[in-house]
Amino acid sequence: MSGNNLSSQYYSAIAIEHFENPRNVGEIVDADIEGQVVNPVCGDEVKFFFRFEKTEVGQERVIESVSFQASGCPATIATSSIATEMLRGLSMTEASQLTRSDYAEAVGGLPKSKQHCSVLAEAVVKQVAANLRFKDELSRKDSS
Ligand code: FES
């Protein structure tokens, strides 16, 4: 199938390298939060685990470490892998501003038929950011 071929005709050297040696794979056992998204069309699925640096109450969370588990195509694995490297050290606001194009560009671009695959990394970060906002809002209400 076009695009599932790992050939350098379809994928950049960076994408192939990240697919073959994905970074930060697995679960962070003491993660502060995790997020999971599935592409309903193809069934590709990613789960990301986040741990944050210690912050004072009211300070913005900064990502100390992030890892992932994925079941999916080479583009999903490669963009998730590079996403974990790009996200470390960012605040959640900065992390939420990264888009699928940023992840796709970071792996040297994706074949046309695989452009959509990088959306999973963007979607999981946005899901986690939204859940954190909700959690913060609930704890503000609880303490007022
Ligand atoms: Fe659907 Fe990769 S083939 S996300």
Structural write-up:
Strands 1-2-3 form a three-stranded antiparallel β-sheet, covered by helices on one side. By secondary structure, it is of the alpha+beta class. It has a single domain, classed as Sufe protein. Chain: A (Alpha-Beta Complex), CATH 3.90.1010.10. The longest helix is centred in the C-terminal third of the chain and has 25 residues. Strand 1 and strand 2 form a beta hairpin. Helix 1 crosses helix 2. It contains five helices and three strands, in the order H-E-E-E-H-H-H-H. The chain binds FE2/S2 (inorganic) cluster. The site of FE2/S2 (inorganic) cluster has 10 residues, from helix 2.
Q: Helix segment count? A: 5
Low-confidence stretches: none
What general outline do the C-alpha atoms trace?
Answer: elongated
Question: Which band does the percent of strand residues land in?
Answer: 15-25%
Order of helices and strands: HEEEHHHH
User: Mind describing the biggest β-sheet?
Assistant: 3 strands, antiparallel
Number of domains: 1
How many strands? 3
**Molecules bound to protein:** FE2/S2 (inorganic) cluster
Percent range of helical residues = 40-55%
